[in-house]
Each structure stands twice: as C-alpha cells, then as structure tokens.
Amino acid sequence: MTTITLRIKVKPGSRVASLEQRIDGTWQAKVKAPPVDGKANAELVELIAEHFKCRKSGVLIRSGASGRDKLVKVEV
Predict the structure, then answer these.
(1) What number is the average pLDDT over the span 15-39?
(2) What is the mean pLDDT of residues 8-35?
(3) Rounded CA gap, 66 and 70, in Å?
(4) Residue 14: how many CB atoms within 10 A of its CB?
(5) Residue 1 pLDDT > 90, yes or no?
(6) Which domains does the chain have, with CATH numbers?
(7) % of the chain at pLDDT higher than 70
(8) What is the largest CA-CA distance in the chain?
(9) Which of 27, 34, 50, 70 could form a disulfide bond with 64, CB atoms 3.0-4.6 angstroms apart?
(10) Does 75 score more than 90 pLDDT?
(11) Residue 41, Cβ neighbours under 10 Å: how many?
(12) How many other C-beta atoms can be found within 10 angstroms of the C-beta atom of residue 74?
C-alpha cells in the first residue's frame, strides 16, 4: 500500500464538486458543502477517496482541518 501526501486548497460552497491538480503540484478541491460542523471536510474526504479509488478510511486530514489549506494523507 502506497501513501501519498497532498497539499489541497479547498473552496467550500461551490456549485459543482471537483478535484483537480494545479501546475505547481498542489490540488484545488471544490465542495458543495458549507464549512459548518465538518461537512466540507467530510465531502472532501469522499471526493478524494472517489478520485484515487480508495476507501474513505484511507484518507486522513493531517493538518488544516479548520482552514482552507490542508495536508491530506491518502493510502492508495
């Protein structure tokens, strides 16, 4: 099992959920959920798990849980 760490900038409250890599190697995540009661983080975990085809339990927000810039560990 391989572990990767992603640097992600999250934009909550978007119309469409998406996850895309930028030219500089960081990721941009757009989630529909508002940043209230961890809803945006939960949707982000689902989005990452779906994109990398892994389980949600394999996605861990290492830092930035309360901010827009996050470090996320993914077990692929």
Answers:
(1) 96
(2) 96
(3) 9
(4) 14
(5) no
(6) 3-75 (3.30.1200.10)
(7) 100
(8) 34
(9) 70
(10) yes
(11) 20
(12) 18
71, two tokens: 């470090």
Q: List the end-to-end C-alpha distance of the chain, in Å, as a whole number.
A: 6
For 2, phi then psi, to 5°, come to -100, 140
Q: CB neighbours (10 Å) of residue 47?
A: 20
Amino acid at 2: T
Alpha carbons within 13 angstroms on the beta-carbon side of residue 4 total 11
Each residue's pLDDT tens digit, 28-48: 999 999 999 999 999 999 999
pLDDT tens sequence across 49-66: 999 999 999 999 999 999
Kindly tell me the burial class for residue 70, based on how many C-beta atoms sit within 10 Å of its own C-beta (0-12, 13-18, 19 or more): buried
